[in-house]
Design goal:
By secondary structure, the protein is mostly beta strands. The protein has five helices and 47 strands. It starts with a strand and ends with a strand.
């Protein structure tokens, strides 16, 4: 479901609070819910105490009225108490005045003939688990009703000792607690969004998971409880926001972990389990077995796991999403905009970008696997800068172009550590780290930023190219007028990557979560170029020409420029065919 956030977090929050037409409140949940559960009620009448609890009161949807048969409470009477409900703010008022079909004998010669009065209950949101006394998935849970001032109940009756003496007595309402609202939505599914096709990391890393409810969450959201069988793998309960069905959660992996473990999630009486583990790590270069040639009119910009890509068609200024089968979705049509500019992708298949239209611009997050559904998240008046594997965008505001904002559930939150960097290229990962290039007194330097202090990665003039979800930063440095790729690791060291044999300079372009690097090397003549791939240990660099399928090699294809690499080791590259024509190729291992 699309989430729309306006330009300022405070304004967004106020919008949530002050727009009752758009957002239900707890009394609305009571109104649209069915049934109420009376957890505890105690009264005193004519010197006797009466108590009851754990009764289900019947109620139809879209009303506050209750029609409660006395027999539901074990009272041997044909009385049905007709309670007519109304609301004022968060207080529900029930009025009733019913005459018993036959007098009800209380004992000691006393009988009741009529029940009347007013009950006022304050409705407040219940956070956390379901009503603990309700064992069925369809039970109401999310609103607690507590008796408040203004409640008055009377009973009329008579005492029959030779003569009948009529009396009226106020009922002492000592306790009334009930649960109402809508059922806690059932958990429909759970999955891991980010690719598990990566090598174990020596440091703690994260995957991104997603839970989906069968129905939208009620007022205040719904808590989905999460548990990992392996206690070293961290997961925390996640709240699905109000009126939404989907929420994401991090899966924290300890250093060196490859698994597997089982993640268990539950909500609304439904339980889902998911086996999570990292796939077998590939550390040595392998030959590519298949390929896809892209149409000459398609200019690729990003490639996603599974082979989908973001590209521009020749002569167009707006991006198009192509599936792995090359089905095209023009994003400006999907988002009803004049132009769409995708700024980043993540390993879960999200696209982060800016849509430009006649009414202005907006930053968006869109799920490539559900492109027809449109934007999952929309931030009016902002431009997208980057996004991470958890689906969290970094944006900038049109009226404040030097500041970077992180978008959470409330709205954009300014990031002090990134002040002044909104005009540069930012890389943002699941660990909350940012990699970028800063101008220093010594020139341009690749840096990694966590918090407020930037960490310069190499002493030489350099540029940050990529940042993966295990904290590695790929960059290119300039040494004596020649380019040299390097890889910075979370241990704090940088290592120079080897150049292909016969080449003197190289530009890094892509990095995946296992540490595989692709780039473009240049020979000493300054003209001859070749695409290469480097293994995660940084010791082996191989030209793509040597790993390409034999059919392409025999057909005279030569790979001159690497463009990107995915976690499933698909490589996007530019090649020259036997006729000297430049083409784009996706190599698949």
């Amino acid at each position: 479901m699309k989430r729309c956030l306006n330009g300022l977090g405070l304004v967004a929050l106020l919008g949530l609070l002050l727009a009752p037409a758009a957002h239900a409140d707890v009394v609305d949940d009571v109104w649209r819910g069915t049934n109420m559960r009376l957890n505890a009620a105690r009264i005193r009448v004519r010197g006797n105490d009466y108590a009851t609890g754990y009764w289900l009161l019947r109620k139809s949807a879209n009303t506050l009225n209750l029609h409660v048969p006395a027999r539901d409470f074990g009272i041997n009477s044909n009385l049905t108490l007709n309670m007519y409900g109304s609301r004022s703010g968060n207080v529900i008022t029930w009025t009733f005045d019913d005459t018993l079909p036959q007098p009800y004998y209380l004992g000691d010669a006393n009988s009741v003939t009529r029940v009347r009065g007013t009950l006022k209950a304050f409705a407040r949101q219940v956070r956390g688990a379901d009503d603990p006394y309700c064992e069925r998935a369809a039970c109401p849970h999310n609103v607690e009703l507590v008796l408040t001032s203004g409640s008055q109940v009377w009973i009329d009756g008579y005492t029959d000792i030779v003569f009948k003496f009529n009396w009226t007595e106020a009922v002492d309402m000592r306790q009334f607690i009930a649960y109402a609202g809508v059922p806690r939505p059932r958990l429909a599914s759970m999955r891991v969004l980010t690719s598990t096709n990566r090598c174990p990391s020596a440091d703690a890393t994260e995957l991104s998971g997603e839970v989906t409810l069968s129905t939208p969450a009620p007022t205040g959201g719904t808590l989905v409880e999460l548990l990992s069988v392996d206690s070293t793998v961290g997961v925390m309960n996640v709240r699905v926001p109000e009126a939404q069905r989907v929420a994401r959660f991090p899966i924290r992996l300890p250093g060196g972990w490859s698994g597997p473990t089982v993640i268990q999630a539950s909500s609304g009486g439904a339980v889902q389990t998911l086996k999570v583990g990292l796939m077998k790590c590939i550390v040595n270069p392998v030959r590519f077995t298949s390929w896809r040639l892209l149409p000459l009119t398609v200019i690729p910009r990003f490639i996603l796991n599974g082979g989908a890509m973001v590209a521009r068609q020749e002569g167009q200024e707006s991006d198009t999403l192509f599936t792995s089968k090359m089905d095209a979705y023009q994003l400006n049509e999907v988002l009803a905009a004049e132009r769409v500019d995708v700024k980043a992708i993540n390993s879960g298949g999200d696209l982060f970008g800016t849509a430009y239209g006649p009414k202005g611009k907006g930053a968006f997050r869109l799920k490539s696997s559900a492109v027809k559904s449109g934007a999952e998240q929309w931030v009016e008046g902002f431009e997208a800068l980057a996004g991470n594997a958890h689906g969290v965008p970094l944006v900038r505001w049109l009226d404040d172009p030097d500041h970077v904002y992180l978008v959470d559930e409330v709205g954009p939150l300014e990031q002090e550590g990134l002040k002044g960097l909104a005009k540069g290229v930012l890389r943002f990962n699941a660990l909350g780290e940012v990699a970028t290039t800063l101008e220093t007194s010594k020139g341009a330097r690749a840096v990694r930023i966590l918090g407020k202090e930037p960490k310069v990665l190499v002493e030489q003039e350099s540029e940050a190219i990529a940042l993966n979800d295990v904290g590695m930063v790929l960059g290119t440095a300039r040494i004596e007028k020649l380019l040299r790729p390097f890889l910075w690791t979370p241990k704090g060291d940088s290592r120079w990557l080897p150049l292909p044999e016969g080449f003197v300079s190289a530009q890094a372009v892509g990095l995946n979560d296992s540490g595989w690097v692709v780039g473009t090397a240049t020979a000493s003549d300054g003209k001859t170029q070749a695409a290469f791939i480097t293994s995660p240990d940084g010791k082996t660099t191989v030209l793509l020409d040597k790993l390409a399928p034999e059919a392409l090699t025999k057909a005279g294809y030569r790979f001159v420029e690497a463009l990107a690499i995915t976690n499933d080791l698909q490589v996007l590259a530019r090649a020259v065919d036997a006729q000297g024509q430049r083409v784009h190729v996706v190599l698949v291992p």
